[in-house]
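TICKET: design request
STATUS: open
ATTACHED STRUCTURE:
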């Protein structure tokens, strides 16, 4: 992550890298352009890490518009990044898996009832990284069988976790939602009777839709080698590869 091909700021927008450390002796510490936070740095805790990061970033900085949340496996086209920074933005903005199934009309969010599904994405990740389930630095402490309980989630689509934009309004909703459940990504959501928060982007989509914020889909947010255009913001170097 420290080798991301980015400057420290663009047009007044700071680039901040975030690293979790469960044993940090303070809630957070900003050193140069790296924000260290007291949090598990495990894959399943990404939503908690993001929410805490937002909380502390708003404590440190006067953020005027919002946050462009990025993964660590991106190659940015810097000219397009600057164009994005200077462009009109939306509350929840990114590239969905399928724009036809992402909810872009706010009217569709009124009294929305969610279906649920079993998602083996996290399970498959930890099959290949079983040591992380018991490593104290990851703070999970469960077996694959125990983990399996938490893989029922709302069935929905929206901006992928590779890269997406969230406005000040959306960021505050995320912070408030996670504070209300004590940042517990294993929280059972009573509205859907499922576990929306174990996959970060699914959790964000659910929080946004539940608070009646639709997504704005943009196919140029990221691409892989098969979907590259002159307008692409960033290239995802890990797209469709085994986690």
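STATUS: resolved
RESOLUTION: sequence designed for all positions
ATTACHED SEQUENCE:
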């Amino acid at each position: 992550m420290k080798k991301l091909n980015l400057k420290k700021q663009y047009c007044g927008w700071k680039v901040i890298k975030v690293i979790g450390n469960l044993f940090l002796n303070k809630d957070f510490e900003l050193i140069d352009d790296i924000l260290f936070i007291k949090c598990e740095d495990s894959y399943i805790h990404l939503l908690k890490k993001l929410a805490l990061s937002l909380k502390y970033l708003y404590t440190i900085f006067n953020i005027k518009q919002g946050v462009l949340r990025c993964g660590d496996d991106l190659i940015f086209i810097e000219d397009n990044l600057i164009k994005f920074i200077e462009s009109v933005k939306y509350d929840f903005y990114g590239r969905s898996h399928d724009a036809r199934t992402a909810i872009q009309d706010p009217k569709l969010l009124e009294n929305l009832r969610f279906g649920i599904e079993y998602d083996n994405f996290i399970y498959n990740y930890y099959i290949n990284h079983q040591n992380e389930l018991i490593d104290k630095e990851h703070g999970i402490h469960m077996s694959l069988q125990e983990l399996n309980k938490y893989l029922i989630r709302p069935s929905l689509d929206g901006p992928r976790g590779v890269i997406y934009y969230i406005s000040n309004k959306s960021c505050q909703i995320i912070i408030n939602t996670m504070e209300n459940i004590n940042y517990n990504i294993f929280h059972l959501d009573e509205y859907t009777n499922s576990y929306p928060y174990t996959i970060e982007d699914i959790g964000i989509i659910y929080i946004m839709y539940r608070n009646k914020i639709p997504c704005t889909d943009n196919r140029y947010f990221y691409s892989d080698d098969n979907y590259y255009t002159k307008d692409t913001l960033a290239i995802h170097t890990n797209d469709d590869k085994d986690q």
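CLOSING REMARK: The CA atoms of residues 116 and 193 lie 8 Å apart. The radius of gyration is 17 Å.
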